[in-house]
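Issue 218. Parser rejects a valid record. Input:
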Amino acid sequence: MSTERIIVDIDPARDNGAAVARASKLARYCGAELELFASVYSHWLGGSESSRDTYLGDVRLWLADLGRPLVEQGLVVSTHGTWHYPRHEAILDRARETGADLIVRAAGQVSRLERLFLSATDWELIRHAPQALWLVRGSELKTRFNILAAVDPGHPSEQKSELDHALVEAASALHVAMPGELHLFNAFVPPTAVTSVPVAAGAGAAPAPIPRIDDALVDQVRAMHESRLAELAAAFGIDRQRAHLGVGAAAEEIAQAVERLDIHVVVAGAVSRNWLQRWLIGSTTEAIFDAVDCDLYVVKVEDQQD
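Output the parser choked on:
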């Protein structure tokens, strides 16, 4: 994973300490430049240019104060404040302008119902940011920072394979910057027999046949997943004992693994598609974000299909 410029979304209404701590530690390891960025907006001030400018000026001074200790630590830090709404658009615009390859943000807690009616920043960034995205939910950095990469080596798609390698590369870089345990995790839903009642094609016709799944096929699928997961772990020098296979829905299995293994960040991925397909982007990643309480680090790869 090559990280050269990190942008940290700073929200004046939120505790940004954990996000800044993670971003600065990674920047120190990678030699990356760091920008503290704030997008502010208040409809109460929208009609008064002088009030708006005064508030924005105060925010910019505040950002400079936040960045000063980081500069004293030897980091290359810039700050930028802007007046813009909605917030996710301002973040994406600034990331594009500066060439940032990682966005770090203190994640909010937004319910599923709220996401139907609000432009929730976290979810819009998951869907639209082409850059890597680190959504921070935890507190200050622990002495040991445990990482879980949610991979899918059993998937036949070449792009899924590319994504898996990008995920493990990103997780490995985080692991070096923030020592702890690095785990791989793959969950699969085994084939099961169809339990619905066979339907006849018409009057007097025999019911259509239904598939019968025997135990041998289930064992074969499990063995395939175990083998490919072991190969992926070996390719990156990860102890086989830290490559875990879950049986069941990915988000639920990952949530259980997070608790069992004391994971601080899940590295998950999505294939970026065009805007017409945006609701398909990272559906599993979004489900993981719903299911876990730890950090989420999202890696994207571009869809090469026309």
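Fixed in the parser; the record now loads. The beta strands are 5-9, 33-40, 77-83, 102-106, 132-136, 147-150, 182-188, 243-247, 265-272, 295-302.
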